[in-house]
Amino acid sequence: MSSLRADAAVAWQIARKDALSELRGRQAAGSTLFFAGLVLLLFGFALGPDSRRLTEASPGLLWLAIVFGSLLTVGRLHQLEAEDGALEELARYPVERYAIYLGKALAGVAALLVLGGVLLPLVAILYGIDLGSAWPALLVTLVLGAIGLAAVGTFYAGVTVRMQSREVMLPLLMLPIVAPLLLAAVKATSAALLGDPLGDLAAWLQLLGAFDVVMLVAGAATYGYLLEE
Amino acid sequence: MPQTTIYAAPRTREQTPPPAVATFELARLFGRSAALAGVSLQVQVGSTVALLGPNGAGKTTLLRILATSLRSSFGSAEVLGIDVNQRPDLVRGRVAYLSHANGLYEDLTAVENLRFAASMLGIEEPRRAAAAALGEIGLTADADRRVRGFSAGMRRRLALGRLMLGNPSVILLDEPHAALDSDGMALVDRLLIGWRDAGVTVLVASHQADRVTRLADGWARLDGGLLLETGGTGVSSIATQAIGLPAPVAGA
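Above: the input entities. Below: the structure tokens describing the complete assembly.
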């Protein structure tokens, strides 16, 4: 148990360090929020002024903006390590490899929750959606979606961090894997906004939860190999 | 393919107590070129050893393998009797390594960088350890400044401060004098003397050959990925027998 506690403390310290760096590098964090907001606005222009159409499409647009924003967020969290050889230093500490992965993923979850927390009200304002009593279900969907995106993104950011073409490779590797998450998150958001008329909200949330567990376990088990050279 | 004569160690690993560092036929290939081409070296516990040689000699590759940052392609390396490829987890807590890069976080302050390192090393009071290390390296006044605003010399000092955390048995230094002014170089000298007096084993690769050999017990000269000769005390090449490997490529 004490070993697990020590590993949890390591993960927490890594997440805290990443969060501090992210908060202080406001330009980078701000540009992600701006980019995701811009994606929402441009999708709105592309779909035209039909408010009913925008309302119907809003869950998909919200999650596409979050997924695009996640590419920048997880990539940047690993870029922090690559700036001055810090990743090699991190890999040399006498700590469990999975704890490093979980720490990076935890920082990703926190950053994506902030992103989602800003984008959700923005969608409501831009597309005229009444969030009303859907808040609790939307929050659960957002948390599960953020965990899944961070789990996948942390792993692939680790794969690409030493590549020269990492900005291109990260989306190419990550987007196909998060397709099931995107589908489940959009369906769950849609069900939550419509008051769950088909009673399938719980099923979509379960799918999201299962995706998260599989990806976290797979990432934790294999991330150590990415740190080796 | 061109062949070169490489020498392998006989199986004399069962020694008591084990040397601080022992490499056997150690080789590392990058693509088709060998950065290390079969180095068999032994460093005694508590010795300070200077690794000498021109750029591309294989000094950094040797240190990175010993620090568990890089896996060897052939041969083996042991630190305190532990194979670095088989049990890197056991080696990591016993070895501290200063690489070419400083491994610092730009948006954290000096004290936050050291506190983070201390917590990763499992030190119970990371705050106190970080403050003490900052005092040793003369950066107490800059403790709360972000590293992004530091000069190259201050960054190097801070990276040196990280070596003072924990209780490593073996310290590996790759160009510790790089970017340092005369005060900084004197700091490195003081640290080397302190570690030697404390019985810590130190391997230091440096282009400041005169400076480090003056403070070292012994030295080893590498070139083209091969161990050419050793001198002084605490370090020796191991009796070998010939094997064949692709020829080392200069500058690898």
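Note for the figure: Chain A has a mean pLDDT of 91.
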